[in-house]
């Protein structure tokens, strides 16, 4: 199932003990569906007390780099609408297995076609895995199609490799994906503002903005110097630099997103959203909790991207106060 207009906007959030209530209710809603292929989850979430202990175990396992659990959260409502994890880690290779499910209320809306590639990118670029794999039953045609669409290769059939909660042994199809095969995925590099790829992309951005802004370009250009930017990011597809972004401190708790740009031929693939997500995650690690940004009303695609990524309009700030062509956004970071 491909993503459609009805596919909910989402973000991934590390599952923690304080998520007991929404996590327990999500599992309870889907318990019958999960019974065969998430038997461990079902058996360890029979009560809230069981679930609390399970979440505490997850937290300990993550601290030991043996398990990475995430919930999929609806951007608009904050509801838990799915789950994805990295498990069975072998740090000698290193590799790990991906498991996932979506909530019954969003089943069939193409959610996982967006989540799985993003999670694979995270496994390769942030965790540093060489390989990820997943296993699925022969009857699960949707997951088989999803795996192939997400760049996995079918590597074989594992005979009687899984035991259901009823005691049945099942054959599973094994799909693998290597970091070196992720040329259609993105690689992100944190760079200095003097990095040639970052400067090259920014130069192309400035040329495009000069055409769009017209006579107003001189006004905006004075706020877009990269000289004082200390947190810059370049996205690569293969060896080609295809997008960039940056941020700077706005106040003690807030960053300002700057210099977002994607090459024309790579637009429409969700790359800008991924760059934005990387910048937000970076800011969170530095202790920031909020992001603001400004864009022009003559950039409808940028406005749509920011709204889809969970940004809300806010009164124009700083030098953009009273500027008719400017529109400012704000987002609380998770």
Automatic annotation (TrEMBL):
InterPro entries from the UniProt entry: Acyl_CoA_acyltransferase (IPR016181), GNAT_dom (IPR000182), N-acetyltransferase (IPR051531)
Keywords of the record: Acyltransferase, Transferase
Signal peptide: none
GO molecular function annotations of the record: acyltransferase activity, transferring groups other than amino-acyl groups
Pfam families, per database record: Acetyltransf_1, Acetyltransf_3
N-acetyltransferase domain span: 10-176, 186-334
Family: Belongs to the acetyltransferase family. RimJ subfamily.
Descriptive protein name: N-acetyltransferase domain-containing protein
Organism field: Sediminicola luteus
């Amino acid at each position: 199932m491909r993503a459609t207009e009805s596919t909910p906007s989402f973000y991934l959030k590390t599952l923690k003990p304080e998520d007991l209530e929404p996590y327990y209710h999500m599992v309870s809603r889907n318990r019958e569906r999960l019974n065969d292929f998430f038997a461990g989850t079902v058996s360890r979430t029979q009560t809230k007390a069981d679930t609390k202990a399970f979440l505490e175990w997850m937290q300990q396992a993550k601290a030991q780099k043996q398990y990475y659990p995430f919930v999929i959260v609806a951007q608009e409502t904050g509801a838990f609408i799915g789950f994805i994890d990295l498990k069975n880690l072998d740090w000698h290779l290193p590799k790990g297995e991906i498991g996932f499910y979506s909530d019954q209320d969003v089943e069939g809306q193409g959610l996982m076609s967006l989540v799985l590639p993003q999670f694979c990118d995270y496994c390769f670029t942030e965790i540093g895995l060489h390989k990820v794999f997943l296993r699925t039953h022969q009857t699960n045609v949707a997951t088989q199609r999803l795996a192939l669409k997400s760049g996995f290769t079918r590597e074989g059939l594992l005979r009687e490799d899984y035991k259901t909660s009823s005691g049945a042994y099942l054959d599973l199809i094994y799909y693998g994906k290597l970091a070196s095969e992720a040329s259609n995925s993105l690689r992100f590099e944190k760079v200095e503002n003097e990095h040639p790829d970052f400067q090259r992309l920014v130069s192309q951005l400035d040329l495009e903005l000069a055409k769009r802004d017209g006579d107003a370009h001189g006004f905006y250009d004075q706020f877009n110097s990269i000289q004082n930017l200390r947190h810059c990011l370049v996205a690569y597809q293969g060896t080609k630099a295809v997008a960039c972004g940056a941020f700077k401190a706005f106040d003690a708790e807030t960053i300002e997103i700057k210099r977002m740009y994607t090459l024309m031929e790579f637009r429409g693939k969700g790359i800008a959203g991924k760059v934005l997500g990387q910048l937000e995650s970076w800011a969170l690690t530095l202790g920031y909790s909020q992001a603001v940004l400004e864009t022009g009303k003559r950039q409808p695609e940028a406005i749509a991207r920011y709204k889809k990524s969970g940004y809300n309009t806010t009164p124009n700030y700083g030098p953009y106060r009273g500027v008719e062509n400017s529109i400012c956004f704000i987002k609380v970071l998770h």
